[in-house]
Design brief:
It comes from Histidinibacterium aquaticum. The protein has 261 residues and is mostly helical. It has one domain (17-49, 57-255). The chain has twelve helices and two strands; from the N terminus they run H-H-H-H-E-E-H-H-H-H-H-H-H-H. It has a two-stranded antiparallel sheet. Strand 1 (57-58) and strand 2 form a beta hairpin.
């Protein structure tokens, strides 16, 4: 086992787990890649037709242009969460989670492998949507590096959160409940379709307590150069949220919470 670890980290095992997670969602790419692109396109078309012509500018840009980064980030958030949560929940329900727990992988390595797969899916989805937005709306990111950083942070945070949810859930109903009653509302109410300046003060304060708001706001700043808050503040909040989520999932994996009989 020492030879396989190449020092303190089991890089081979970590790489294998990450590859498995990537191959898992690529095997159903119509569902995991094309479906998010179509959903994002539908959101843009519907809001453009229903609201766009009469909405006017938001923060100095056209409404359709304003919501494009929000829809991109919201899609990344949902897909990163779904990747880890469904992977672990399916393995538990099918009874093959032991195949993941048996190899010589530490709790940190397991978390890294799963989260890396979520980040890969989030990046792929973001790239596909970004290309579509550039082709059809002519929106080219002003700061591609900033967009990349916030998309990766969103993937890490939501991947770790999805992993915790998958570990906690004993059946798919519980997983669906978290997705429908927590993740989706928080994603929609994070400035995806509006500037939080239009909200009452209480709602603005609640938005500032939501890490997803900073992820969406950071991507919007990187793509359009406008945002509701400082991108540096958003970066700090997202980094802290990622660290807290990763620490939580590491603790659950280390203790074998709901994974070991």
């Amino acid at each position: 086992m020492g030879a396989r670890r190449f020092g303190r980290m089991n890089w081979l095992g970590l790489w294998t787990l990450m590859q498995r997670e990537v191959m898992r969602f690529m095997n159903v790419w119509l569902q995991t890649v094309m479906a998010p692109l179509i959903n994002a396109g539908l959101f843009l078309v519907i809001f453009t037709i229903a609201i766009g012509p009469t909405r006017g500018e938001v923060m100095g840009v056209a409404f359709t242009t304003f919501i494009a980064p929000g829809i991109l980030t919201m899609t990344v958030i949902q897909n990163a969460f779904a990747n880890t949560s469904s992977s672990v929940a399916s393995a538990k329900v099918q009874g093959n989670i032991v195949d993941t727990l048996m190899p010589p992988l530490s709790a940190a390595e397991l978390a890294l492998g799963y989260v890396a797969g979520a980040v890969a899916r989030g990046l792929l989805v973001a790239l596909v949507i970004a290309v579509g937005v550039a082709v059809f709306l002519g929106i080219v990111p002003q700061s591609p590096l900033v967009v990349l950083v916030f998309v990766v942070l969103a993937g890490v945070f939501m991947g770790a959160l999805g992993l915790m949810t998958g570990i906690y859930a004993q059946k798919f109903d519980q997983l669906a409940a978290v997705t429908n009653f927590l993740i989706t509302p928080l994603a929609f109410l994070s400035g995806t379709f509006y500037s939080i300046d239009a909200l009452p003060q209480v709602m603005q304060d609640l938005s500032h307590a939501n890490p997803m708001f900073y992820m969406i706001d950071g991507v919007r700043w990187g793509m359009l150069g406008v945002s509701d808050s400082s991108p540096w503040l958003g970066f700090a909040v997202c980094l802290a949220a990622c660290a807290a989520a990763f620490a939580g999932v590491w603790f659950m994996l280390r203790k074998g919470y709901r994974l070991k009989a």
